[in-house]
């Protein structure tokens, strides 16, 4: 079993920054692909960014140039640096780990508002 814990969410003004963290623990046998998704109220969960086991990175068009995903393999932790935040970035942000099966964290709320 794999357990994911997200942290770093909060309330920030438009144009501000936040850094999310997702720490993985449990039966992690190799470097997994890790990703961030988000879900705004009344909407589906959408892809934000992914970093593969080989280090390849991909972003949703809506966050390119503003968000940066990174990882610390020694800590089994993935990060999401979010800059130039907009009100439309408001959502619950979820971490996903894929290692044969996929596992999700409980989510962390990000609210961008003045």
Compact overview of the structure:
This protein has 114 residues and is mainly β.
Any overview of this molecule?
This protein has strands at residues 2-7, 10-12, 18-26, 33-39, 45-51, 57-59, 67-72, 77-82, 91-99, 101-104, 108-112. It has 114 residues and is mainly β. The strands form 2 sheets. Strands 2, 4, 5, 6, 9, 10 and 11 form a 7-stranded mixed β-sheet that branches. The mean pLDDT is 95.
Q: Approximately how much beta-strand content do the residues carry?
A: over 45%
- Helix fraction? under 10%
Q: Using the CA coordinates, give the radius of gyration.
A: 13 Å
Return residue spans where pLDDT drops below 50 for at least 5 consecutive residues.
none
Main sheet summary: 7 strands, mixed
* Total DSSP helices: 0
State the order of secondary-structure elements, H for helix, E for strand. EEEEEEEEEEE
Distance between the termini: 40 Å
What form results from the Cα inertia axes? globular
Topology:
Blueprint: E1 2-7, E2 10-12, E3 18-26, E4 33-39, E5 45-51, E6 57-59, E7 67-72, E8 77-82, E9 91-99, E10 101-104, E11 108-112
Parallel strand pairs: 2-11
Antiparallel strand pairs: 1-3, 3-8, 4-5, 4-9, 5-6, 7-8, 9-10, 9-11
Comma- or semicolon-separated keywords:
114 residues; 7-stranded mixed β-sheet; 4-stranded antiparallel β-sheet; 0% helix
């Amino acid at each position: 079993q794999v357990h994911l814990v997200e942290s770093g969410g909060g309330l920030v003004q438009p144009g501000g920054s936040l850094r999310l963290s997702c720490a993985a623990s449990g039966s992690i046998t190799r470097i997994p692909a890790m990703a961030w998704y988000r879900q705004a109220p009344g909407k589906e969960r959408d892809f934000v960014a992914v970093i593969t086991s080989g280090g390849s990175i991909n972003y949703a068009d809506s966050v390119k140039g503003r968000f940066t995903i990174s990882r610390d393999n020694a800590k089994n932790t993935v990060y999401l640096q979010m800059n130039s935040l907009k009100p439309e970035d408001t959502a619950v942000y979820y971490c996903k780990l894929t290692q044969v099966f996929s596992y999700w964290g409980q989510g962390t709320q990000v609210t961008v508002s003045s």
